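thought: fold this chain, then report.
action: predict
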Amino acid sequence: MDAIDAIMTRRSIRKYTSEPVAPEHVETLLRAAMAAPSAGNQQPWRFVVLTERERLDAAAQTTPYGAMLKEAPLGVVVCADTRDLKHPQMWEQDCSAAVENLLLAAHALGLGAVWLGFWPKMERVEPLKAVLGLPEGIEPLAVIAIGHPAETKPPADRYDPEKIRYERWA
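observation:
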C-alpha cells in the first residue's frame, strides 16, 4: 500500500477480532509514531502499550467513548512528557502527528485502529492517569485502540472545494 492509498482509505475501525497484534507490528507502529515531525525536534511523546485485558477494560471506563477498548487486543496511549520542554505550547501538535503516523501504519499493516481523544478533557485525563499510574508531567493526549478488523468501511471522500481558499481568505 503506498502512502496516498493509506491516507485515502484509512477509516476509524471500532470492531476487532480476538487475534493478538504481533509484537513486531507493535514495534512498527511505535517506530512510525516516533518518526513524526516535532517542533524543535523536542520529541515529547511517550507511549504506554496496553495488552492486558484488565488494563484495557479499565482504560475503557475512563471515557464515555471507550467501548471498543473492551474488544481491542492492543491499546497505545500517546502521552507527552511536558517537563522541561523547549517549546511547551507545541506538545499537542507533536503528539497528534505521532498519532496520525501510528494510525496510518496500522492501516498499512492491515490492522484497524481508532483515535480516542483525551486531552484536554480533564474528566477523562485524570481517571486515565490514575489507571496507568502516570507521574506528574506525563499527560495523555489519546488512546489508540488497535486490532485485526472485524468490520470494513469504504473510503470516505471528504474533499470539499468550498473549504479551500487560495492566497487570501477574501
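thought: worth noting. Strands lie at 45-50, 74-81, 112-117, 138-147.
final: C-alpha cells above.
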